From TrEMBL:
Pfam families: SpoIIE. This is SpoIIE family protein phosphatase. InterPro entries: PPM-type-like_dom_sf, PPM-type_phosphatase-like_dom, Ptase_RsbX. Residues 6-198 form the PPM-type phosphatase domain. It comes from Salinibacillus xinjiangensis.
């Protein structure tokens, strides 16, 4: 479990490999600068070391170019993965100057937004995975409001359980810790859950 308040975004992460595996095929990264916050989650198809090779390649290329626009990041990632095993991917970018966000998920990486008014909204992913050819990817954009909570998770997370119990008022650590305690014994796939609050 990782957690901490870095400047404007409070982040907590729960990650655990599939029961019986040592190596996690999910890989994530997040970073806050003065002008932006970015978080990325990649889930390599399959599990274990082969999956990890692809998901870590995807994360590293985005890490090296994290200030580039969304479309460019996806393109870089796509090029990096040609001849490798595929990944599904989620990216959330927050513009801390203009107070806007943009996000995308490709394949089954879940993203949900909890608004300060209690509304919960699941993002509809673009079907498929990377690498892919000639595809366009849906990018969702919106205004960033103080108190906005973003959840991003791999398909090892039991989404119904997560969304049923979570509220926008909880600390990020509480969200990941309670999920871990409820579901730790039922981890059927590599699992990563990131909880992030702005403001
Ligand atoms: Mn998975």
């Amino acid at each position: 479990m990782l957690n901490g308040k870095e400047n404007q975004i409070e982040v907590s992460v729960f990650q655990q490999p599939k029961i019986g595996n040592k190596c996690n095929g999910d890989y994530f990264f997040y970073k806050e600068t003065e002008t932006q916050f970015i978080s990325v989650l990649a889930d390599g198809l399959g599990s274990g070391a082969d999956a990890n090779e692809s998901s870590s390649a995807a994360i590293h290329i985005i890490k090296d170019h994290h200030t580039e626009p969304m479309e460019k990041l996806i393109k870089l990632c796509n090029n990096q993965l040609i001849h490798k095993r595929g990944v599904v991917l989620g990216i959330i970018k927050m513009d801390l100057v203009n107070k806007t966000f943009e996000l995308t998920s490709i394949g089954n990486v879940g993203i949900a937004i909890l608004k300060p008014n209690g509304e919960k909204k699941r993002n509809i992913p673009t079907p498929g995975y990377l690498p892919s050819y000639g595809h366009s990817f849906k990018v969702k954009r919106g205004e960033l409001e103080p108190g906005h909570v973003f959840l991003m998770y791999s398909d090892g997370v039991y989404e119904r359980s997560l969304l049923k119990h979570v509220t926008e008022k909880q600390d990020m650590f509480v969200i990941t810790d309670r999920y871990a305690k409820r579901e730790r014994e039922n981890i059927a796939d590599d699992t990563t859950l990131l909880a992030m609050r702005y403001g």
